[in-house]
Structures are given as C-alpha cells and as structure tokens.
Amino acid sequence: MKTVCWLLLVFFGTTQAPCQVLDPPNTPDRVIQQTEGSKLKYFSSVDAGVYKGSRPKSDADYRFLQSLHVKYIVDLQFLPFMSLPEKRKAKKYGITLITGTMNASPISPSEKQVNKVLAMLVNEQ
Fold first, then answer.
1. 50-53: strand order across its sheet
2. Contacts of 51 (CB under 8 A, 6+ apart)
3. Distance between CA atoms of 5 and 125, rounded to whole angstroms?
4. Mean of the pLDDT values across residues 81-88?
5. In principle, which of 4, 85, 100, 113 could form an S-S bond with 117, CB 3.0–4.6 Å?
6. Average per-residue pLDDT for the chain
7. Is the pLDDT of residue 18 over 80?
8. Residue 65 belongs to domain spanning
9. How far is CA 120 from CA 34, 57, 101, 116, in A?
10. Which of 15-24, 28-37, 62-71, 101-110 is predicted with the least confidence, judged by mean pLDDT?
C-alpha cells in the first residue's frame, strides 16, 4: 500500500477515499515548481501554506520543503511503522513529523481517526 503524507496541516497522497470530497473543477490545486533534485510526486498547493504530495525521501526533497517554510509533515498510514528515522531526518531540516493511523481507500477513515489526527495537529501548535 502506498504511504500518504500531509504537509503542514494537510499533506495527503493521491488515493481518493470514498468519503473524500473532490475539489470543485474551478479551483484546482496549484502545482508548485520543485527545485532541482527534488522528486516529490503529486506535489501541489492546497491552500495558502498548505501542501500535499508524496513522502519526502531525499535530502533534496527536505531542502525543497524547507525552502517553502514547511513546519510540519503529517504522515498518515494504515499501519505506521519505522517512523523514527524519518522523524530524525525531518528534524535535521527543522520540520516536525507527526505520525497517525488512518484507513485508506477503499475503507473510509472513521470519525474517531480523523478527530485523533486533528487533535494531534492542535497539540503541536
């Protein structure tokens, strides 16, 4: 299963869960030009200061996120494992990695899972 991430408050991957609402056709996400070496997939701006895309893997990816003044990466996985090395790498670039458990498509996330992740975000601020 692909891992999905949310940057800042919301950095989500590409899988559309049945409960998710699609963006209206008149307001598409704004694609952000990445720096050389950065290979984040599906990276775009959702709102002012809120981005979505794939999991950062390389130093170039983290430098790119740092250049956008990203403070938080929210990593939502069905089975979150081995996040300690990722937390260390994000911290090296001044970014806090917040991990959470959430169902993925085709099973919609429960209200309890969504509320737990939102509570984690509020506690980080």
1. 30-31, 44-47, 50-53, 4-7, 72-77, 96-101
2. 7, 8, 11, 32, 43, 44, 45, 68, 70
3. 18
4. 82
5. 100
6. 74
7. no
8. 4-124
9. 28, 23, 11, 6
10. 15-24
For residue 10, the SS3 value is strand
Task: Examine the pLDDT at 75 and tell me if it is beyond 80.
Answer: yes
Q: Would you place residue 31 in the very low, low, confident or very high pLDDT band (cuts 50, 70, 90)?
A: low
CATH code (residue 55): 3.90.190
For residue 32, what are its two tokens? 């952000």
What total of structural domains would you count in the chain?
Answer: 1
Please identify which residue in the block is written with the tokens 């940057």: 7
Strand partners, 76: 4, 100
Buried b (16+ CB within 10 A) or exposed e, 71-82: bbbbbbbeeeee
Assign 91 to helix, strand or coil: helix
Contact indicator for 53, 44 with CB cutoff of 8 Å: yes
CB atoms within 10 A of CB 90: 22
